[in-house]
Specification:
- 13% of the residues lie in helices and 42% in strands.
- By secondary structure, the protein is mainly beta.
- The chain folds into 2 domains: 104 residues, TolB, N-terminal domain (Rossmann fold, 3-Layer(aba) Sandwich); 262 residues, Neuraminidase, CATH 2.120.10.
- Strands 1, 2, 3, 4, 5 and 6 form a 6-stranded mixed sheet that branches. The protein has a 4-stranded antiparallel sheet with strand order 9-8-7-30, with no helix packed on it. The protein has a 4-stranded antiparallel sheet with strand order 10-11-12-13, with no helix packed on it.
- Helix 3 packs parallel to helix 4.
- The two termini are 34 Å apart.
- The N terminus is likely disordered.
- InterPro entries: 6-blade_b-propeller_TolB-like, Tol-Pal_TolB, WD40.
- This is Tol-Pal system beta propeller repeat protein TolB.
- One of its GO terms (biological process) is protein import.
């Protein structure tokens, strides 16, 4: 319904349409999608390369088709919106101009010009997809973010990053050991992860653009499941130095700041609320793993999930209203989402076994791993469970995805 109202505003007056920025709620089910036509790319100067035109058309179609408010159209005659793109190259550089046009009013909704190396063409395209969502919804898209994940493509469990759509996979670790559970810093400039490369499961922090790395926690036993606080100043993590797995707070340098859980049960998988005031985690203190929530100082610990006998790997939404997690059902796991007060527990997946859910930085999508096509692979879906799409760049076993805020 909101889409229809926005369309009416677009038809009535450009001024009203501008005032409607932020009006589309792309996380809500829609009954009427805006038809969007990605027009063939043209040349700013000279001829276009067919491969470039095809690549951009496919990129815009995937980005904006997944977003929800749009139906990608094959022609402009009946489209509500037309996405026009043109480019030129000089040496190894490329300039890309993109415009989103209201076809009925023949009015430009937004336009951007990007310049960079030819290798950055896809990034430029994703940037304009982000801009289209910002112009129509008031919230920037997540398509320029990167996804870090664990892959066995080399035979060992190494950490790679890739574009959100599976393109441009790049190796981060190459130590021939077991590397697990990457988590991006809020800045998008570094990750933390657990590695067995020195024998013990220790926590490492790695700068993504320099490759500089530090082992920040190497206490006896487990040092794992690190999660940055929203301001990046602290890390919630699991250590077993005192016997069983408990949740601690440490600084970015690994200095222990506080012990948050203290019991005979196993407490794991901490994840922060977006305002940094609470932490969701998994505990088997009542017999089997369930999702719990506590204040960021460890106080007020309380059970969240009351359904299912085995619930794990929770993650808080960027908007703070939902928590996704994996529930054991039959011989595998399915992804659920639940309100932070324990209501509206909704199953989102059903095919194969699905684990490791993480929200996109704008909260529109959930990325996760699934065995539905055989080997564990990475998928994404909208937060309502629709548009489940495989993005794994290879046929190797890929798991534990996490989506960067910025890149």
């Amino acid at each position: 319904m909101r889409i229809i109202i926005l369309l009416a505003l677009l038809l009535l007056a450009p001024q009203m349409a501008q005032a409607a920025e932020g009006y589309i709620d792309v996380t809500a089910p829609v009954s009427r999608k805006l038809k969007l036509y990605p027009a063939p790319t043209t040349g700013l100067v000279g001829q276009v390369t067919p491969e470039v035109s095809r690549e951009l058309s496919e990129l815009f179609g995937m980005d904006l088709g997944l977003a929800g408010p749009f139906e990608i159209s094959g022609n402009g005659a009946d489209a509500d919106l037309i996405l026009k793109s043109s480019y030129s190259t000089q040496g190894g550089n490329i300039t890309l101009e993109c415009r989103l046009v209201d076809r009925v009013l023949n009015r430009e909704v937004t336009a951007k010009r990007y310049s960079g190396s030819a290798k950055e063409l896809r990034r430029m395209g994703h940037a304009f997809s982000d801009e289209v969502l910002r112009a129509l919804t008031g919230e920037k898209g997540p398509f320029t973010g990167k996804i870090a994940y664990v892959t066995k493509i080399s035979g060992n469990k190494e950490i790679f990053v890739m574009d959100y759509d599976g393109h441009n996979p790049q190796r981060l670790t190459n130590n021939g050991s077991i590397n697990l559970k990457p988590d991006f810093a809020p800045s998008g400039k570094e990750i933390i992860y657990t590695s067995y490369k020195k024998g013990n499961p220790d926590l490492y922090r790695r700068e993504l653009f320099t490759g500089l790395e530090a082992r920040i926690s190497s206490r006896s036993g487990l040092n794992a499941m690190g999660a940055y606080s929203p301001d990046g100043s602290r890390i919630a993590m699991v250590m077993s130095k005192d016997g069983n797995s408990e949740i601690y707070l440490v600084s970015r340098e690994g200095k222990e700041l506080a012990r948050l859980t203290n019991n005979h049960a196993i407490d794991v998988s901490p994840a922060w609320s977006p305002d940094g005031s609470r932490i969701v985690f998994v505990s088997d203190r009542l017999g089997k793993p369930q999702i719990f929530v506590m204040d960021a100082d460890g106080g007020n610990q309380r059970r969240l999930t009351t359904n299912g006998g085995y619930n794990v790997t929770p993650r808080w939404s960027p908007k703070g209203d939902r928590i996704v997690y994996a529930r054991q059902e039959g011989g595998g796991f399915q992804i659920h989402a639940i309100n932070t007060d324990g209501t509206q527990d909704t199953q989102l997946t059903s095919a194969g076994s699905n684990e490791h859910p993480r929200f996109s930085p704008d909260g529109r999508f959930v990325v996760f791993s699934s065995t539905r096509d055989g080997a564990e692979a990475i998928y994404l879906m909208r937060v309502d469970g629709s548009s489940q799409t495989r993005i794994s760049p290879n046929k190797a076993q890929n798991s534990s995805p996490t989506w960067s805020v910025n890149w």
